[in-house]
Specification:
Structural class of chain A: alpha/beta
Oligomer: homodimer
Order of helices and strands of chain A: EHEHEHEHHEHEEHEHEHHHHH
Shape of chain A: elongated
Number of helices of chain A: 13
CATH superfamily of the largest domain in chain A: NAD(P)-binding Rossmann-like Domain
CATH architecture of the largest domain in chain A: 3-Layer(aba) Sandwich
Chain lengths: 307, 307
């Protein structure tokens, strides 16, 4: 990008740098642990301090604020719950912006709205010179632990290349999809597929059950065909057997993403009838089962027994 | 099954038997070719004779009627378009029933209604003593050619075991799902997933395109995550690039299956909102693009350009 500050990341490979991680929750903690295991110095902060403390034993430096992370690190990774949490951590009191410096990079692993991402990125660079890469992740906690996440990025090529060696310590797939916001847009397309697939698998499993076929045998019977997928193999037995601990993912998270799809779809004049219906089914589940219900409990909505 | 006739199939492995194949179309022809290549004697018949003739060069014996196939073969395989075609080939003039004998087996690879399957099977056994195994297939023409089909069966264990060695010359997966009709029910569950997945992938690809992301890169960006599948990798590039020759499958076939799902769902009190919406989208496609349109042209329905 012409006129942008030289990247601190560009001096990267020649000297030992300090990385930062803001938000060491369900996803952020195992991702940070992988950075530490790879030999990096990592400065961390989390709003709930207790969730960051176990990382200290693994070598992390725990500081008092997101601003402190930004003061010490050239590349700050961030993994938070939603758009509001990101805005607060970046622009709130003692936020990343307060400690940001020109040429530093913020890599946002959170799944938030593409439009908000573009506004935050513009503001952060204008106010501090810090560059933004949106890089939402897919693959869940197991993927974070194993370093097999798929990460879809939006931003400039130079920023993407500067952080790539570190991101690949946490991910198997890291793809630049376009300018700022394109990573978030791609993640929403991912969620269209994952959210609707959950609902469709629940529908198929219920039909099988009601029509006298053992739905737990569908993964075996359909293996290798066009209906086969990781979700078929993993989700259907959990749904049918009522196995929801630990949850595959909270219904709140799925619903937040599908509602973001709705906003993006309206703004881009894209008909999304399947996603709209999936969103309303997950909303029904959140009303009946609470925000922390396992998203796979969508199967229960079509059953005669209690939720 | 107590009281059923001893299976001719049971003398199978000790002596060379004659197999039959009725319906040597897009799927039946490569399936028959695999039986011939494995060294079996196969008697064939097809309503349109020209479609069966190339098999003669591969060693097939071409006869004048479905009844003639049944007269010569202990195990008759059949692969036809729909419920009406199956009824005609079995119970019509010079049909399979006219040449059927006690203890012989009819393996129906067609995808037809479970309820019709049960009625046909009952009638055929009552009138002739021939046993029925419903065994609809998944995997398309490429799977038929490569012998990698997934086949889901309904019937009794003894019939299933008697035909298994021959079916596995055409398929990688052969699973007995329950009594007569259970194979067809399982195939409909398969089609719930495949049909809805096509529509959902079209929705995701359109959203990406409209929101400024290159949809042909979705397979790469989402590889390995929960959104990944054979359909993602194969269907999305074809949709976005408008590659519909040869068609992946005709919209007529998909719509026939999804309408069968609708009937089964009503009969079993199963809510199938996603399948119902997919059926109406494929119906719209069939109205605009004709019955022979490629089912993947569903992507065009949400585009500004002409179908």
């Amino acid at each position: 990008m012409a006129g942008a500050a030289p990247l601190k990341g560009e001096k990267a490979m020649s000297e030992k740098r300090t990385l930062g991680f803001v938000g060491t929750g369900l996803m952020g903690a195992p991702m940070t642990a992988r950075l530490l295991a790879a030999g990096n110095r990592v400065v961390v902060w989390n709003r709930t301090r207790a969730k960051a403390e176990p990382l200290v034993a693994k070598g992390a430096v725990l500081v008092e604020s997101a601003a402190d992370v930004a003061r010490q690190a050239d590349i700050v990774f961030m993994c938070l719950t939603d758009t509001n949490a990101v805005e607060e951590a970046v622009f709130g009191a003692d936020g990343i912006a307060a400690g940001a410096s020109e040429g530093a990079i913020l890599v946002d692993f959170s799944s938030i709205q593409p439009e908000a991402t573009r506004a935050f990125a513009k503001r952060l660079e204008a106010e501090t010179g810090m560059r933004w890469l949106d890089a939402p992740v897919s693959g869940g906690v197991p993927g974070a632990e194993a370093g097999t996440l798929a990460i879809m990025a939006g931003g400039t090529q130079d920023v993407f290349e500067a952080v790539k060696p570190f991101v690949l310590q946490m991910a198997a797939q890291f793809t630049l999809m376009g300018p700022t916001g394109a990573g978030q847009t791609t993640k929403l397309c991912n969620q269209v597929i994952v959210g609707c697939t959950m609902a469709v698998l629940a529908e198929a499993a219920r039909l099988a059950t009601n029509a006298g076929v053992d739905a737990t045998r569908l993964p075996e019977a359909l293996a290798g065909g066009f209906a086969d997928s990781k979700p078929l193999q993993l989700f259907v037995p959990r749904m049918v057997n009522g196995q929801h601990e630990p949850p595959l993912g909270h219904v709140y998270t799925m619903l937040k993403d599908l509602d973001s799809v709705g906003e993006l779809a309206r703004a881009s004049a894209s008909p999304v009838p399947f996603t709209a219906m999936a969103a309303e089914q997950f909303r029904l589940l959140s009303v009946r089962g609470g925000n922390d219900a396992d998203a796979l409990e969508i199967f229960k909505l079509s059953g005669a027994s209690k939720l």
